[in-house]
Amino acid sequence: MTQSSVPFLPFVRPDIDEETIRGVADVLRSGWITTGPQNQAFEAALSEFCGGRPVRTFNSGTATLEVGLRIAGVGPGDEVITTPASWVATANVILETGATPVFVDIDPRTRNIDLNLVEQAITPRTKAMIPVYLAGLPVDMDRLYAIAREHKLRVIEDAAQAVGSTWKGERIGKLGDIVSFSFHANKNLTSIEGGALVLNNEEEAALAQKYRLQGITRTGFDGMDCDVLGGKYNLTDVAARVGLGQLPRLEGFNAQRRKLARAYFAGLAGGVAEKLGIGLPLADFENSNWHMFQITLPLEKLSVDRAGFMGALKERGIGSGVHYPAIHLFSLYRARGFREGMFPHAERFGATTVTLPLFTQMNEGDVARVCRAVNEICEQYGR
Ligand SMILES: *Cc1c(COP(=O)(O)O)cnc(C)c1O
């Protein structure tokens, strides 16, 4: 049954208020549109958000990860441990520095890197770890940093999805080593494109600033030197103004996301989908910012594949996504020797996961509609 009278529900949509739109227009009229006063204000606000730690903005959460690795001294000959269940950027940045990615399988319950398997992957060449907080759920931070301390490893936290998530009541970004956020349009806080790196001290912040803009340091009116190979990763003031308009609304955004996630658990409880064995995320209402609500499909009990399932959602006016196919099975990584069967939990998750709509302007009625559709499709194709 198609419901063409009901408006299409995308899986994500940014939430930009009119005050921010006016603010952007002011920036455009101001005469200073690239990195300038809005970035300074955004960095100051983010630093306060992260308990006063130094923060530098970037034009993406990929640039922040790469620069984080460089600040940690990662380069050719080094190994970096990470998860295969992430956006491919997480591993690509390791290759970008010339280092070698070492994948560790996920815990299927949390869908994050299984910290119980990390120590057996450590070698004398291991320099750093990039844990990913998938859908905003952090790993066990006490355990993570115990491993890092014991083996003298740097940590670059891929907190791209975890803006506003917490660990034992403290915000992600307030604690830990180097922390990387993304402000891509789909993230809980957006600057259209963008990212921020939380650093340990002013020396690291100065280095981050050099890597952000061609390795340049300026002195006085006319002095300039270039002593490291930097990139072109600075954020525009237009983007920073968008981010500044989002930050005061973040707590409210995340509260609404938690409410919608609870509605998903309620709406899927006891239905056909649950009886068929649909997989649900870990019901964490302490730490997660509920960046996404990802189910896994019991494909062996359905006479439809994932694409068909997503198509059936679309016919009912509902968008969905896939986050993410296992990174090690992409051609670039297969060419480096990775194969099926190496990380079975990440592979199964990557092959069966579907991201359902979850964004701040949705209401519980929208969630109920998605849950009904999921149950209907499971009813139709269940076997
Ligand atoms: C979004 C994302 C990135 C990359 O951020 P961009 O801003 O898109 O470059 C990296 N890792 C994870 C887990 C992400 O979700």
From TrEMBL:
SUPFAM superfamilies: PLP-dependent transferases. InterPro entries: DegT/StrS_aminotransferase, PyrdxlP-dep_Trfase, PyrdxlP-dep_Trfase_major, PyrdxlP-dep_Trfase_small. The keyword Transferase applies. GO terms for molecular function: transaminase activity. The keyword Transferase applies. Keywords: Aminotransferase, Pyridoxal phosphate, Transferase. PANTHER family: DTDP-4-AMINO-4,6-DIDEOXYGALACTOSE TRANSAMINASE, TRANSAMINASE. Belongs to the DegT/DnrJ/EryC1 family. This is DegT/DnrJ/EryC1/StrS aminotransferase family protein. The lineage of its organism: Bacteria, Pseudomonadati, Pseudomonadota, Betaproteobacteria, Burkholderiales.
